[in-house]
Amino acid sequence: MFSLTVNSPKPLSLSTPFLPSHPHSLPTITHKPNLTPRPISALIIPPSGQRNQQYSTEGPQQQQLYQPFRPPPSPLPPKFRNLDINSKLEVLANRLGLWYEYAPLIPSLTSEGFTPSTLEEITGITGVEQNRLVVAAQVRDNLVECGLDEETLSCFETGGAELLYEIRLLSGKQRVDAARFMVRNGFDMKQAQDLARAMKDFPRRRIDYGWDKFTGDSPGDCLAFWFFRLAQEHAAAAAEESRVEAMEKALEVVETESARNVLVEVLEGKGVDKDSVIDEQVKVPLVRMKLGEVAESTKVVILPVCKAEKREFEVEAAPWECDGVGDFGIVEVEKDWRRWVVLPGWQPIAGLERGGVAVSFKSGKLLPWKEKRKYKEEPVLVVADRGRKEVVVDDGFYLVLSGGNGSGDEGLIVERGLTLKEMGVEKSLGMVLLVVRPPRWEDEEQLIDED
């Protein structure tokens, strides 16, 4: 209903000296609008689909049913779904129930506005443990979906969060195989971590010696190959006791017969590493770097780098000391230097406190031993100890300056101690401790997280 008001105009009054003193008011005109409401007609046009159905005679009308939104099922166990916030906090604080039952309460409380630090103050569960419980519960749910038997699942009811958390990056099938293997062998958290790394790392090691004899679908073979590689690193670092220990661990977990035969042959000295040096008289460790090896090392060695073509000038001018200072191990050096390299703390260089230097060679052609041609073309790093310049060991190797025989190709080379003695050379630039080959970038495969 509409309401309309019209104001009437006020009468005009004119007062001038030329008009009479009694003015005549102008007539008042009032406009009254017609307020009679008019009828409104509207046509409601249905959507095209309904219109076609309404006027179509080809078939019966199809009834469209309204489907309301159905939220996903709650991840909380039935006995915890109707709890209020205080009750949920009490369950977590007192660990009421099995770990995978109360673990979903953590994200539920997080959605209510609780932060990890607040939950830690109230329940006593640290932020790290909160994350471990939530992730492990998700892994357990995935194991149930993948059909893991109840008997194996029951083994993770007590202390299983620490184990299942470590296999979070494996695929569903790998998780099932790893869970069964861990239960059979009674693994702890550290062993579960090594197993997960070994299974994830195995596909990228196809170029390594003996890889084809191990089975990637077998958790035991993956872990055995992990220890087998570790044994090779210990062998390159001349740590015989550690090598034997790693080989024995590999034999304890290996599952296939072909892999076991390789381990037995290498342990007995019958196996030959294809990357090893052909000349049996070489007494210096020769190691190939692996991608990510420095990041996994608990101890590293930082060395100044010199170019072989710069002759002895850079070797003598390079810093002698490089120490880690303070709680954070901040590196301090005695002088500025442009090039540095970080190497894993292998045994031959782990105790090198001062005088160490790494010399970069464009190829391995200047190494005084026989190698395959493809290895001769690779660049190498020669690590030498400048504190041991006297040529005293016949089977040792030393860094010396080559005369070039007048060809103008003077530069640094590596020479055997006996050869230097026969030439009458008594001092060198340093004794060679290690020769390092670069990683094979073109053959490495990237790991894909299937979580």
Short summary:
By secondary structure, this protein is α+β, with helices and mostly antiparallel strands.
H/E element sequence:
HHHHHHHHHHHHHEHEHEEEHEHEEEHE
Please identify the structural class as seen in this structure: alpha+beta
- How would you sum up the global shape? elongated
Between the first and last Cα atoms, what is the distance in angstroms?
66 Å
Number of domains: 3
Number of helices: 18
Q: Could you tell me the radius of gyration in angstroms? A: 41 Å
Major sheet: 8 strands, mixed
**Range of strand content:** 5-15%
Give a count of the beta strands, DSSP E runs of length 2 or more.
Answer: 10
Uncertain stretches of 5 or more adjacent residues:
1-6, 10-30, 51-60, 272-282, 404-408, 442-451
Average pLDDT over all residues: 78
Helix content percent band: 25-40%
Keywords: Chaperone
GO biological process, one term: ribulose bisphosphate carboxylase complex assembly
Protein name: Rubisco accumulation factor 1, chloroplastic
Biased composition (Polar residues): 49-66
Short descriptors:
Rubisco accumulation factor 1, chloroplastic, Arc Repressor Mutant, subunit A, chaperone, disordered C terminus, two-stranded antiparallel sheet, about 450 residues, 3 domains, alpha+beta, Raf1_N, RAF1, eight-stranded mixed beta sheet, single chain
Topology diagram in text:
Elements: H1 48-55, H2 85-94, H3 99-102, H4 105-111, H5 116-123, H6 127-145, H7 150-154, H8 160-166, H9 172-185, H10 189-201, H11 219-236, H12 240-253, H13 257-267, E1 286-288, H14 293-296, E2 300-307, H15 311-317, E3 322-325, E4 330-333, E5 340-344, H16 347-350, E6 356-361, H17 373-376, E7 380-385, E8 397-402, E9 411-416, H18 417-422, E10 430-437
Parallel strand pairs: 1-10, 2-6
Antiparallel strand pairs: 2-5, 3-4, 6-7, 7-10, 8-9, 8-10
Helix pairs in contact: 6-8, 8-10, 10-11, 11-12, 12-13
